[in-house]
Amino acid sequence: MRRAAKVVSGVAERGGIILFVGTRPGHDRCVVRAAQLAGACHLFERWTPGSITNGQQILGKCRMVVVDEFDREAAGFNDQLVEKSVLKPDLVVCLNPLENYVMLHECGLAGIPTIGIIDTDANPTWVTYPIPANDDSIRSVQVIAGVLGRAGQEGQKRRKQAALLGTVTYSVEHGLTVPTGQESQVDAEQRKIINEKRKEYAAIVQNRRPVEAPAAVAREEAREDAAMHADLGAAARAVDRVKPSEPPMGVNSANNGPQEEVDEHFDQKTSLDEAGEQVRENKL
Predict the structure, then answer these.
(1) Per-residue b/e over 114-144, b at no fewer than 16 CB within 10 Å?
(2) Contact by Cβ (8 Å): 149, 37
(3) N or C, which terminus of the chain has less Cβ within 10 Å?
(4) 0.70 exceeded by the pTM?
(5) For the domain 2-173, what is the CATH superfamily, name and number?
(6) Each residue of 149-161: pLDDT tens digit?
(7) Which of 21, 29, 74 has its CA nearest to residue 52?
């Protein structure tokens, strides 16, 4: 599960296309929700065979758009997209591999990595990243879909934060020519707003760094003070253990106090030891 979540997060961070597939009854809600979180696509009906291996014939009439680093549609590319081949997913998440073996086989032929829930009746070699779980339980499927959807959401968040700083986290080699002189007034205003947000985000990041240093220093100083007080307390307790006991208040030292009882005990023990030595000498 952890490895699969890292894969989903990495693909989403690099602007990849993720497809969530769940075709059993009750999978539609969790599949759609996970796709919304990760900014991905979803499929909760029957898979059309050949959608990947013969995608140009089946999906050739589907509309394609060009988006920027903020997932906004860029105008002026419609004429160039006519001759482009259909898009293929960069990652497929299958919640019920048993019913979608044809789709997984097509992904293997096209070299598309897959993530799937593998139960005891499924073959783990069908998918690239298997998740051992009970695919018959709706609750189990919902938990796994939610975790993977949140992982994709984190990847999308990192990608958009990097875009605010002017960094593109994915490859831009698409073979398209950027149209010149066709930027509308709305696009210019949006670009101006984005540049302002970039400056604000950069200022927030820059101002946050010096603030964290004194806090870390203060925490380290507090930790050192606590350690010093602990050492002083241990030393004081050691001194108390070494210090000889005094008679309690109100007890005269001439009376038989605790210390005198201890002395008498040791005197009796010494007398017995001397008597034992004398007996041994007489035997010798």
Answers:
(1) bbbbbbeebeeebbbbbbebebeeeebbbeb
(2) yes
(3) C
(4) no
(5) Glucose-6-phosphate isomerase like protein; domain 1 (3.40.50.10490)
(6) 999 999 999 988 8
(7) 21
